[in-house]
Structure formats: C-alpha cells, structure tokens
C-alpha cells in the first residue's frame, strides 16, 4: 500500500526517547522502567528514538529524510500531563 504519492511528504509526529550514545545498546534500566509505566498509564505503544525512525525510513529507501526535535514546542503540554498524573489514578499508575 502507498502512503504518499511519489515525491510526496510524510510527517511523523510521535513521542520518542532519547537517542542512544554510541556505547549504548539500550536505555538505562530506570529509563525503560519509567517509559513502561508511562505507556501502561496512558495506553501508549513502546517508544523508540528519533534515530530509530530515521533508520527505519532509510531502510525503506525513502529520500531526503529530515528529523527535528520539537521538545520546546510541546513543553507547554507537560503541565497538563502532570496535573493528570496528580490524580488518584495517575498516582497509582506511575
């Protein structure tokens, strides 16, 4: 199945974990544990890094792949996440 016309643009917006250092194969255990709790609490799939997405897209022979970190633009959303986490359900889930 085709997602975009030839020459078209695909934009992927998703939560990602940090890119791993060259000496790392996986996240630190405490990082993975925290992400697992967030996934369970908010019904999210497993996270991957931006670098992982670039590798996947490259393996599909896509061209002109660009990645951007939008963290500063989504940061205003986090107070709402924290408020939801400070409910009884949020506290018992995380």
Can you describe this structure?
- The chain is mainly α and 94 residues long.
- The protein has a domain at 29-93.
- Helices cover 45% and strands 0% of the residues.
- The chain has five helices and no strands.
- It is globular.
- It starts with 28 loop residues before the first helix and ends with a helix.
- The model has no long low-confidence stretch (mean pLDDT 88).
- This is Gamma-tocopherol methyltransferase.
Q: Report on the biggest sheet.
A: none
Going by helix content, strand content and strand pairing, the class is: mainly alpha
Beta-strand content bin: under 5%
Q: What overall form do the CA principal axes indicate? A: globular
Helix content: 40-55%
Q: What is the quaternary state of this protein?
A: single chain
What is the number of E strands? Answer: 0
Question: Count the helices. How many?
Answer: 5
Overall pLDDT metric:
88
Helix-strand topology string: HHHHH
**CA-CA gap between termini:** 38 Å
Low-confidence stretches: none
Gyration radius from CA atoms, angstroms: 16 Å
Keywords: Methyltransferase, S-adenosyl-L-methionine, Transferase
Family: Belongs to the class I-like SAM-binding methyltransferase superfamily. gTMT family.
GO molecular function, one term: methyltransferase activity
Protein name: Gamma-tocopherol methyltransferase
